[in-house]
Amino acid sequence: MGLEDKMSNKAEDAKGKAKEAVGGATGDDELKNQGKGDQAKSDIKDAGEKIKDAFKH
């Protein structure tokens, strides 16, 4: 997995956690759910990158 991809995925995960926290604190369920979605996308991208890495070796 490239360093840029790792950093991008971590940034998306952090953004999702922040959205989820703000949504929870303000009672904004839509924002909270967007945050969870961002984290899920990050997890899927990480898994895809790990699969690509496995086939490179």
From TrEMBL:
Stretches assigned to the CsbD-like domain: 5-57
Region (Disordered): 1-57
Basic and acidic residues bias: start-end ranges: 1-20, 29-57
Family label: Belongs to the UPF0337 (CsbD) family.
Protein name as it appears in the record: CsbD family protein
The organism's taxonomic lineage, starting at the top: Bacteria, Bacillati, Actinomycetota, Actinomycetes, Propionibacteriales
